[in-house]
Each structure stands twice: as structure tokens, then as C-alpha cells.
Amino acid sequence: xxxxVPVHSADDPAIYEAARLLREGELVAFPTETVYGxxxxxxxxxxxxxxxxxxxxxxxxxxxxxxxxxxxxxxVPFDLPPAAEGLAALWPAPLTLIVKRPSVVPTLVSAGxxxxxxxxxxxxxxxxxxxxxxxxxxxxxxxxFAHTSPTSxxxxxxxxxxxxxxxxxxxxxxxxVESSIVDVTSDPPRLLRPGxxxxxxxxxxxxxxxxAERLSDVSDEAMTAPGMLxxxxxxxxxxxxxxxxxxSVREAIRLEAERNLTEGVSVGILAAEEDRAALDLPAVHFxxxxxxxxxxxxAQRLYASLREMEQAQVDIILARAFPTKGHGLAIRxxxxxxxxxxxxxx
Length: 346
Prior knowledge:
The protein has 11 helices and 16 strands. The protein is α/β, with parallel strands linked by helices. The chain folds into 2 domains: 209 residues, DHBP synthase (Alpha-Beta Complex), CATH 3.90.870.10; 107 residues, Rossmann fold, CATH 3.40.50. An 11-stranded mixed beta sheet has the order 1-8-2-3-7-4-6-5-9-10-11, with helices on both faces. Helix 1 packs across helix 5. The longest helix has 17 residues.
């Protein structure tokens, strides 16, 4: 059975036990500022293989390597190109850089590519764990493959009980969506996945950065970065995403909800606080993620709310789109993939 162990500080004894398990080739789930990660020693191919087996993850989907400090970065060693230097100064942060893979990192980590995702998480428990382990940690999100990502230890347990030795429980994650991924090996650099660090912030360091189109199928060849599949971050119930002006979106969701209810289909609605008066309908499981003026809170609550919809056993989820500034770009990306591209423009 998987153990959930609460941790309260960076010197908690549980961190050293978890570090020992990692050195011994076991899997440990741990909190980051974004989501919970499923960690293995990034230099141990057999340990890394356990990640793919536990998640049911295809080998074409690469992992991200987490380091604790610049000393570990140099020891491995990772080579940061000039385009990465300014962004790397932001670390620790919800930011992953695609760089050349050092030969010491097994090719399984990078899906056979000569590039690898690298980041330094902005969470005291994650950094303490990596330091205590003394090795970089390869870690995707700690959930079954393509399912909604975990923002609490319980989410990890629900998906991976029996497949991971220990879950370090430090409460709910602060950012709630995965790191932004920037490919600094390309010219110009490309944003492969919007995430916890806004595009606006990244552009202050890389003004010429391009936003990549990322719509891949699981059968495709190796992907440059994780999170590039069209269907990803998905709840068990189908999701439809509605885009348009506020009035039209509310009206379209209301009509779709009423149509489904008359057919005996249970409905969940994922929206904003400003939508409550129009969409908090009888017999509907309605969740307001937050205000349209507070996209950081909406991002932080997104995955937990999708999992709440599953627990409510709704048959279909109707979700509205949100503004795409700041955290909004990542929110739209996650909802688009949770919907597997099923978007209605109204």
C-alpha cells in the first residue's frame, strides 16, 4: 500500500526517508508549486521505467528533470544556451526549459530525443527532497496518464495507490497548473506549453518567442515536451468548452444544460462567479472557479474542480472559456485538452 506522509517543513524526517527511497530506485510523489510530481532518480533508467509503468504513460511522452540548485545543474552537467540564461535567473519558478540532454541522463527520460526538459521547482519541500536525494529527479504529474493532474496528496492516492512507495503531503499546490515550457534550443525560442509563468513575463526576457501549436495524437513520434497531446488533463466525463462573449456563452451553456437534463443526462457546469446567476440551475452541479478578474485563483482551482465533477458522477461537463491574459492562456490550454478539442464557438 502507498503511504501518505504529511510534511511540514524542509527538514522533516520524512523527506530524508523519501530521498532514500529515490536513491534505492523507488517512486515518490511530492508537491511542487504547480502540481504533485511522480519522482524517480533521473539518472537511473530502471527507476524511470517505473514512472511510465505506474502512469500507463507512452514512452513517446518525455519527462521533466528537476534540480535543486545551480550546483546540481553544473554537476550533471546541463548546458544552457544563451537564450536560456535570462530565464534561468527566474528559477526556482514554474518554468521548464528544453535544453540539450546530457549523456548521463537515460534516453528513456527524453523519449529518445537529444533534448530534455529541465526545471527548478519553487517549493521548499520539492527542493529539500532533491537536495537530500543528491540526484536530479525525473517527474511528470503524479496521476494516471492523460487524467486530470493532481493538486493534492489525495488526488495522487486516488490515481496511483499501490504504484508509488510514498506520497509527501504538503497540502494543496499554490499554482495549480503545470509549468510553462520554453524550447530554448530553437531559433526563435518557442513556448511549447503555457503554464504557471505567464507569456507576458517570458516575453520580457525573450521578446521574439513564438507560441507553438500543440495538437498531437498518442500514436505520434516522440514529443519535444510533455502535455502536447490533444486529449490530456481529462476528467472521466466528457467536457465541452464554450467560447465567445459572456452573454452568448452563458445562454449557450444554459440551453445545452437544459437539453441534456430533459434527456436524463446529469450535467456539471464549470464557470466563473459572474456566471452564477445565469447558470446555477436546479439539478445541475455548478462550480464557480472564481472571478473573471482573478485568473490565478481559477487556475489554482481548475484541476480540483474537474475531479469534484467526477466525484459528483456527472455525465457531461459544460465549461466556459476564460480571458487569455496572464494565467488565462494556461487555463484555456488545459480546458481545450480536457475537452479533447471539443469547442463550441458562440
